[in-house]
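user: can you give me the structure for this one chain? tokens are fine.
assistant: on it. calling the predictor now.
[tool input]
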Amino acid sequence: MNSPLRSDAPSRWIVFGVGAALLALAVATGLEKILSTDYWWHLRTGYWIAETGAVPRADVFTYSVPDARWIDVHWLFQLALAGVHSVADHAGVVVVKAALVALLVAILATVGWRRERPFVAGLGLGAMLLVASERFRDRPELLSFVLLAGVVALLARDRRRNDALVYAIVPLQLLWANVHGLFALGIALCAIELVSEQLRAAREPARSGRAQRLLRVVVLACLASFANPNFADGALYPLRQLGMIGPGGDDGMGRGYNLELVPLWHPAVPRAMAVAPAALALACAAAIAANWRRNRDRSADLLAFAAFLALGLMANRNLALFAIVAAPLFVRNANEWLDGRMRSAWARHAANAAVAAALLIAAVDVARGSYHARIGTVHERGVGVVGLYVPALATDWIERERPPGPIAHHMWDGGYLSWRLHPRYEVLVDGRLEIYGPKKLAALRFVTPREFLRLDAKYRFGTVLLNPTFHARQLIAWFYARPDWRLVQGDESGLVFVRAEPDGSFRWPPLDVDSPAFLRDLAGERGSMQSARRRVRIQLLRALDRKERARAESLKLAARRGA
């Protein structure tokens, strides 16, 4: 049936403008250099699966937990990641990531879209992109976002059409159970819809057919989760993951915190980071409340909103999940409430144009890096890899010179070392919390000399890789001053120390930290990461007792800030 507003609906150019601006914002949030340290062990595992033709059942990368049980629920993502990388390298991975973000928006746009009011979808989905952009990393989580959006869209369609296409959720769940451990969220959404439909069927007996179909979808989706290489262990993996998606997962960090695992009100979280999630939550709640009388599925909306809001409040990493569910709830309820109210064509045209302009401004803001700098989070736009967090020069030296193992290193460097050095070297630890568990992960952490000596007594390290970004300068200074360890290679991304031979000699000459060749010139580097790299460099030079050079770097940093 034609909309009563069809005659004065906006032109196709206005509709196209809002859609194009929304797409531009999606691409801007997706085109971000690889920052996740987990990316590297996922990539190495993908190649391992391709080479061996098997999914790993036990750890193959570390010497600290040899042959530990590994329930690899990400195997299909890892295999696909290796396939993309083999064809288009890291830049191709970033491009595919941006395409997945655009697909996420396209799927959610099918929920509640009105041709006469595309600005409503633009507002909701634009806010979703800004909130979820913190999690648009090169990790299997991104596929969870797309699949969650698919379940949301299919359930929304089933409300309108009430037909058998809702069974398409089952193959989505089958795929989801083999790419990421959050697949239980799709089943949870279906269960929420089922409960709501049963409540509605109690009032309207004619609706009982949909309730029965949803029950079959829930049962089949649960059964589909068992179709994975680990069978019951894989299907029950989300129960294990419950401790990893909230603040409890921070136990593995020992002292300190992980920004993604703490809630928004944690003192370490920048206040500006809460603005977009709070605005989306308030807008969604207001839309549901305003449309309460007209919304026949209000119980499903309220349950989904409350459940995912609670999930988002547990930890920052879950805010993206909340945004993906909340945005279409806002769009559908706001548009239903506006039906018959916003009669002025001029007001609609003005709103559409204003939102299109706002989305374009937001896209430019994100693309320039200003948005994330303003909310206090680290991002670097473009394709490729963020070099500061990759100890490439240090690993080049290890790969070439082959110093004695085992290697001691920070958890965040473990994946990259596996990517570059496996199988010649095994690693101490990486980001696979499911392998180590929180207690073991904390035990493998060293940020003080005392913690290192405790681990050294057990493993007798031959080489140490210190990361100036993650290791305190006091630890670097301690190693640099010890006669039984020698700094032989490195920069602000990683320092290689080797242990003395039994007779006190060293096989490699010391790194000349006074040479101009030590620490490359940053004059040609642009963007926020230049300042970040310079700050790390200053701390490194102070740790090496090179005060004059540290002072010179501080002046350059101050000049950049002034500019």
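assistant: here you go. The longest strand covers residues 485-491. The CA atoms of residues 115 and 522 lie 50 Å apart.
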